[in-house]
Amino acid sequence: MKDVEVKGYLIPAGWTVMVYPTAAHLNPSVYDDPLSFNPWRWETLINYVEMDRQGQKVNSGSENFMAFGGGSRFCSGAEFVKLCMAIFFHHLVTKYRYVQFD
Predict the structure, then answer these.
(1) CB-count burial class (<10 Å; 0-12, 13-18, 19+) for 66
(2) Residue 84 labeled ligand binder
(3) pTM (2 decimals)?
(4) CA dihedral sign, ordered 97, 36, 48, 69
(5) Counting beta carbons within 10 angstroms of the beta carbon of residue 70, is it exposed (0 to 12), middle (13 to 18) or buried (19 or more)?
(6) Rounded CA gap, 27 and 21, in Å?
(7) DSSP state, 55?
(8) DSSP one-letter string for 24-43
(9) Which residues bind heme (predicted)?
(10) Boundaries of every domain in the chain
């Protein structure tokens, strides 16, 4: 192992480096007012597809949204969760009656 420098920061040999996805989701250079609750900010994200070493397609997520990881370590349950949420919202919208309170 050897020391490595990344964007002006020196990472000494032998150090463990961990990814903190929440920090990516709170980046003010990417998201306007990142500390406010705004679920619509994720609406325009694109899922990128890459090829792994064996030539298989790999969903790498988005460079700015890491809830499901990325690359070859992309969450295998991500598509299942999306299906579950679609079913949940379908039932929420079709099985209940909504009224507006003044």
Answers:
(1) middle
(2) no
(3) 0.45
(4) negative
(5) buried
(6) 10
(7) S
(8) HHT-TTTSSSTTS--GGGGT
(9) 75
(10) 4-94
